[in-house]
Design goal:
Distance between the termini: 55 Å
Shape: elongated
Strand order of the largest sheet: 5-2-1-6-7-9-10
Strand content: 25-35%
Structural class: alpha/beta
Largest sheet: 7 strands, mixed
Helix content: 25-40%
Oligomer: single chain
Order of helices and strands: EHEEEHEHEHEEHEEHEHEEEEEEH
CATH class of the largest domain: Alpha Beta
CATH architecture of the largest domain: 3-Layer(aba) Sandwich
Number of strands: 17
Amino acid sequence: MKILFMGTPDFAVFSLDALCAAGYDIVGVITQPDKPKGRGYALTPPPVKVYAEEKGIPVWQPQSLRDEAFSALLGELSPELIVVVAYGKILPESVIRYPKYGCVNVHGSLLPEYRGAAPMQRAIIDGKQTTGITTMYMDVGLDTGNMILKDEVAIEENDNFEDIHDRLGKCGADLLVKTIEQIADGTAPSIPQDDSLSTYAAKIEKSDCLINFDTDARSVHNLIRGLSPIPLAFTHTPDGRLLKVLESRCEADADYSAPAGTVVSFEGGDITVACRTGAVRLLRVLPEGKGRMSAADFIRGRKISLGDILK
């Protein structure tokens, strides 16, 4: 089976690596164009491109999937199956319908829950204890195609986005190989989604990252870990400077009888902040203009005091 792989970030590398390890015929890789990164804005290739070039797989980075040039490329490569993992662009119907065995997507949720751009982050932020991977046949809707296989992954109390990203990346890679095996031998199911059960995982915006301590401690903790290590939840110190938070712990039953956002303790070298109910302990932070550091180092730098209000 001739496979064309479409993907861009680290999450997609898990699946591409699994296909290579299983010996599949990868006729090419389609990925996003290089983008400027860092302070020097140096053009940086996406992780999938780096991996594919190391493996000697041809790579293309088209600006559009809708022009004649890409249609010609499809005709030249003539894939029998297209695998899409976090590619980052919506595929036109002409591409979806092209391969003999269709387009298969590896999605980071248990569909129809969390369709959309940020399923892993949203599941953590919402306090879910379980998430997973769904492989599906793509159609013209947003993650609405018929499902093939699913596998569950537990979300532990202090797991952050990186933890779940890597766990789901491995899970998705394994499930993709099983999916292709079943497609090849004609046993792959095709299960319609129940649209009435669908939820949407919107892209993470800056406004989503502001910590609201005037809520329960569990929700604050979930937001912090769901956005760590990137893009990071943030608050502001009394002088208005940005304070991003990398790691926290939840004290759901704590009662400090203080207004939400009040710094109430430095015990154990952590910054404990009162919430509307309970409190959160901030373990690691990223102050404005500084590097990542422990809460203890931030305290020693005298950048925060008991009684300060974070907001």
